[in-house]
Amino acid sequence: MKQNSDPEWFTGDFAIDLALVRNEIGHNSDVHFREFHIGGTDVCAAIIFVEGLTDRELIDKHIIKSLMMSFTGGAVSRDFITNRVLSIGEVAEEQALKSLVAKVLTGSTALLIDGLPNALVLGTTKEKSRQIEEPVSEATVRGPRLGFTETLCDNTALLRQHGENASLSFMKLQVGQRTKKELVIAYIKDIADPDLVEEVKKRIQNIKADDVPESGYVEQLIEDNYLSPFTQVQNTERPDRVFSALMDGRVAILLDGTPFALIVPVTFSMMLHSPEDYYERWLPSYLFRLLRYLAAAISLFGPSLYISFVSFHQGLIPTKLALSIMGTRDGVPFPAIIEALIMEVTIEILREAGLRLPKQIGPTIGIVGGLVIGEAAVQAGIVSPIMVIVVALTAISSFAIPQYSAGISLRLLRFPAMFSAAVFGLYGVVLFALFLCSHLVKLKSFGVPYVSPIIPDRLTNWTDFMIRMPLKKIKRRMKPISANGSTRKK
């Protein structure tokens, strides 16, 4: 219950309440206090706002002008002020000092009026955001050119723009212990499993962090297994990918201040799918998807297979090819594992350097550096030409993976696969693959098997798995995810 003597609550006395706010945030140079009288009366009032976060034109024309010049008399009451004087859309009442200060520091304007027991919070936030542009991290040839921005309301509006859908629901939460940020859970009410929505809400509410600056923090704090090298939460800049996931019964998480939305639950196959698969006809999409799976396999096992064959199983290589490989390795002082590590580490350094350099010179440095270093290493006899080909093919294959985070996982696992091949040969590669499969089978994302639809075996879900069947054949949503509305309506 509210106690008037408690400094945490407003007292109704204008001088005392204004002093409370001044003591709390008055030391900030960007916080402005504007005191005035309402109309021609002797009733004192004051507004408090933060410079740069509020719309000054809105404050001048619709708050100060309305209260000082448009007020024509009458009882100064809350209902009269909000319903007859203020020409502003968002008006709320606040009685707690801490809550009022938090809203002022995020762009709202506080209004204190002598005689009113509580403060009024006016929506004057000035949104600062960049223009909606094409997603940088997920390029497509065909499809929408819209990407999320750092403004939460813009991102929710982009999802609404996909079409009239009364079932599209947004649940707003706050994350961060010291710095509060708004977060939205998006889902289709009559498709998404209510238990899944509740589980997502529960995990987000259990986040204990002073500040959550980017959705990557949320991703790491809500995933099932933080020790797994595989990402269990999909991140994306594309509204069409998010909306497609919502229509499949999944849940999206949007955080204010970042253009990357999160999708849960996810499966490994989602990491190799592109929105463009559904914009093109099924035959080319079928081919491109198979090529991505092949590229993922090459990216993971390419160097390890080369090491195992060259070091242990030369008899499995055709004679002419074996002689050619041995000829190129003549004079190389290092074993295959050291040779592969030198080139792989060099490629990873060049890749990282290309990302950190300015956009104008980053790609040039990556391409030129790779060519120069590769050629110089071959001429110096440090590595063989065949190893340069293997590493180049591996790097190119990793670029074919649509999801950057999935590519990172495969790049990370490539190194233990190489060491397994160096110690046990082809048997080591097979053992590593079996260990990886056992881990994937046990891994789950919000209760959904990560390798669905292989585990559990649901043949109805294979129409949109490694292959992409014609849209007329894709009639059912993935059963472990969508509890309601499992059949797509045509």
UniProtKB/TrEMBL annotation:
One Gene Ontology CC term in the entry: membrane
Pfam families found in the cross-reference section: GerA
Keyword Protein biosynthesis: no
GO BP annotations listed: spore germination
Signal peptide segment: none
Keywords: Membrane, Transmembrane, Transmembrane helix
Entry superkingdom: Bacteria
Cross-referenced InterPro entries: Spore_Ger (IPR004995), UPF0353/GerABKA_families (IPR050768)
Membrane-traversing stretches: 251-272, 293-312, 386-405, 417-441
Family, per entry: Belongs to the GerABKA family.
The protein's name: Spore germination protein
